[in-house]
Amino acid sequence: MNYDTILFDLDGTLLNTLDDLADSVNAVMDKEGYRQKTKEEIREFIGDGLKTLMERSLPSGTPEKEILRCLAMFREIYQREMQNQTKPYDEIPAVLKRLKEMGIKVGVVSNKADEATKEMCTHYFQGNVDFAIGDNPERKKKPDPDNVYAALQQLGSDKDKTLYVGDSNIDVMTAKNAGLNCVGVTWGYRSLETLLEAGADHIIEQPNQLVTLVETLQITRGEKDEQR
Predict the structure, then answer these.
(1) Strands 15-16, 87-88: parallel, antiparallel or unpaired by DSSP?
(2) Tens of pLDDT along 101-160?
(3) Once rounded to an integer, what is the mean pLDDT over residues 189-207?
């Protein structure tokens, strides 16, 4: 039995979105008179959805109504500016293309807004992503497994034949909650230590190592199946 599906996180895993997220947050901060945030602060705020990003960017104790008002401003700005500096990490387009050539089904499960997730996958990956889903009102966001299950259903995939790839502890938790093995990547927004502490099953430091890992796991699982 071999892996035939890989689900990816988006921000910090496939795409480096930090600059555009930081610029859009700071456009709101500047307009509303709040302190500007550094990119390192924004890096730490990313991962739990846009509302949480805005809540963390505003002063502690900011009322819910104000958070939602600023979030609406942020969404409008980011939707317009989200492709200014964003780009795939080195090797990612080639890796996705290679996975497709290997017959692997590729999906994306993100806490970015659903519309933006789909738009970015279409724009940057040109048909090498089979299905993408982001934060939406119909399901709970990561680390809840709802959107993972939706992706598996759409792809016609089984949990035991699927790997989840992400850069954060949220991604590791998501994989565990969904019953998937998780590959943690170190080029994104969280540290190696964070991924290890969260319990990632595998760690890679460069995107092209994913292809090698998949090939190795295929061989290992094939040998185990033959021994049964």
Answers:
(1) antiparallel
(2) 999 999 999 999 999 999 999 999 988 999 999 999 999 999 999 999 999 999 999 999
(3) 97
Packing angle between helix 18-32 and helix 64-81, nearest 10 degrees? Answer: 130
Q: Specify the DSSP class assigned to residue 140.
A: P
- pLDDT confidence bin for 1, thresholds 50/70/90: very low
Q: Could you tell me which residues are beta bridge partners of residue 16?
A: 87
Q: What is the largest CA-CA distance in the chain?
A: 66
- 131-145 confidence digits (pLDDT tens): 999 999 999 999 999
What residues contact residue 53 under an 8 Å CB cut-off, 6+ apart? 21, 25, 42, 45, 46, 74
Amino acid of residue 206: Q
Kindly report the pTM of this predicted structure.
0.92
Contact yes or no for 107/151 (Cβ under 8 A) = yes
| Ordered structural domains, the chain, with CATH | 5-16+88-227 (3.40.50.1000), 18-81 (1.10.150.240)
* Helical spans, DSSP H, in the chain: 18-32, 39-45, 50-57, 64-81, 92-101, 114-125, 146-155, 169-178, 192-198, 208-227
Asked if 173 and 167 count as a contact pair (C-beta separation under 8 A), the reply is no
Q: From residue 112, how far is each of 53, 118, 152 by CA, in Å?
A: 10, 10, 18
Pairwise CA distance, residues 59 & 152, whole Å: 39
